[in-house]
Write a structure and sequence with these properties.
The protein is α/β, with parallel strands linked by helices. The chain has one domain. It has a 4-stranded mixed β-sheet, with helices on one face. 13% of the residues are buried.
């Protein structure tokens, strides 16, 4: 089974409810044998590694992560688009 996982932030270290939730589900899918590709922003507090943005990173659970820049844009300009504020911030 193939699984595409979209989340706001790379969940390690899992130090908030959102990250604990994402970490648990992604790991469970991988342990069940799914080939997981996850797309997220890198963790700004603990970046994964010294690597170019959007380069794949394979973690200990064999999950392939495609990580973008950790800094998100502001919410104000989302008022002038049809996108919800989180979607607007993530497309930067």
């Amino acid at each position: 089974m193939h699984c595409l996982w979209l989340t706001r932030k790379y969940p390690r270290p899992a130090n908030s409810g959102e990250l604990i939730y994402s970490e648990g589900l992604v790991s469970a899918f991988a342990e069940a044998g799914a080939e997981v590709v996850a797309v997220a922003h890198d963790n700004d507090e603990h970046p994964v590694a010294n690597r170019p943005a959007e380069e794949e990173y394979v973690d200990r659970d064999r999950v392939r992560w495609v990580l973008g820049e950790p800094r998100l844009g502001g919410r104000l300009m989302s008022l002038f688009t049809r996108l919800p504020s989180d979607s607007y911030r993530l497309m930067k």
